[in-house]
Amino acid sequence: MPVTIEQFGTTSGGEPVESISLRNAGGLRVEVITLGAAVRAIDVPDRDGSFRNVALALGSVAEIEQRSPYLGATVGRFANRIAGARFALDGRCYELGANAPPHTLHGGFRGFDKALWRRLPGCEERASVTLTYISPHGEEGFPGRLEALARYTLTEAGDLCVTYRATTDAPTVVSLANHTYFNLGGEGSGSILAHELWIGADLFTEVDDHLIPTGRLVPVAGTPFDFTKRSIIGARIDELQHQLACAGGYDHNFVVGRSAGGAPRHVATVRDPVSGRVLELRTNQPGLQFYSGNFLDGTLTGPSGRPYGRRDGLCLEPQSFPDAPNRPGFPSAVLRPGEEYRAVSVYSFRTV
Hints:
The chain is mainly β. The chain is built from two helices and 27 strands.
């Protein structure tokens, strides 16, 4: 069967959490759980055909509820940061949950990563699952009743397609992103600093000491942020450079731009030279947050039984620009009634 459904656990409120495993004929497996519409495992082979999970995760619902730094989760209603935990829309100011004081991060204190999504029936005949969550008007301060869908599809070619859709009954802002931490050497295998990275972006959004965009789009040329040629992640990460110092490494939005017609385009490639695993990312979103796992501190332990230390995973998060609701010069993240938000990302796995 391409889809297997099991119970993963129960929430602190006694609600069941499902685990859905998607498989293709080549042996690839993706596990998704309904808590946070989160990716919990991606089993892919190395160059010798040995399968290993390349996504960081925690072992229980209780750990996810209490401690998880968005591992694998769908983050929203607005991914990344909103300055001052507020924004104005159509002449009205909205106050949000300041869970990263004094700012909002990934939707507030109870973002979409803490929500229990509902699985929709009907995709069992192929390796796909659709989850839905209704965010009520005023949740974490955001206006409008937002109906969100998250669809995960595993193809026979080895592509994991992640599609987010949303509609609203009142003007609002929305940016949904998947927050999987990848380690192509395998979950629990240690640092990602030897991974090689290419990002198709000539600009990144400069941030202040709170990681809030200043509004400036800075050329990557001549800086440690230049991944337009494949580079080892750890080669320049500790250079004495203010932008790196602000984040303790990479935690920045790269300007990848929207493609004509809204079709996903190739924006990033990661390669682990030891295992030979390669991840290629295509998306229709204008921004890509590259995060080098700077705040992993060894206090979280994954299924391997090994703690996750600093920089033991990396995130590539297709998204709207951070703080877009407060930056008229950034691509708009406003969604209005009668419109549909649609974000598509394709994670393709192969070996070299």
